[in-house]
Amino acid sequence: NAVSHLSGSRSSKTFKPKKNIPEGSHQYELLKHAEATLGSGNLRQAVMLPEGEDLNEWIAVNTVDFFNQINMLYGTITEFCTESSCAVMSAGPRYEYHWADGTNIKKPIKCSAPKYIDYLMTWVQDQLDDETLFPSKIGVPFPKNFMSVAKTILKRLFRVYAHIYHQHFDSVMRLQEEAHLNTSFKHFIFFVQEFSLIDRRELAPLQELIDKLGSKDR
Description:
The protein is about 50% helix and about 0% strand. α1 (about 25-40) crosses α3 and α4 crosses α5. It has a two-stranded antiparallel sheet with strand order 1-2. It has 7 helices and 2 strands, in the order αααββαααα. It has helices spanning about 25-40, 45, 55-75, 115-130, 145-175, 180-195, 205-215; strands spanning about 90, 95. It is mostly helical. It is globular and about 50 Å long. InterPro entries: MOB_kinase_act_fam, MOB_kinase_act_sf. One of its GO terms (molecular function) is kinase activity.
């Protein structure tokens, strides 16, 4: 059962509190649909917009789900991602990230990976909790800038995957989490490819892995 990993015992180790989609809501139905199609094992098909559904809503539900997955994956390795082991937020020697959110921190600051990821996940959480950006009530429209907000969130969440793969993959393997990480990342990549949500340049740190995941699936 491919879906059990979404709600397994591991979820107790989330980095931030899990973001729940209200039960009984249409978004909850969509999440259930997403989980069911994931179980089929065909990820290319699983990410497609279900017939008759609203694209914004589909992207919103999946963005929340990816936040929760990355939250769990990073939660399993936080003890290995420290101020001293990861003094800069990087994805291999060629890619370093500096944090800015455009409101509180306008000029990008250089900080350790744990600090960067804390800023990032807190920032994403604030966006997801903002009812004007991610309306949870039926009939409340998504804002006009929703797509660009979602793209920024996903672009930033990608950086957490990139950091885990480049700096902590040995820990992931020791914990026997690599299948879980790979499935989650593959799902994420197929999703952002399906709707062109992340610029190719941003994906560069994991391009080889992305090519490999894609070729296995053709």
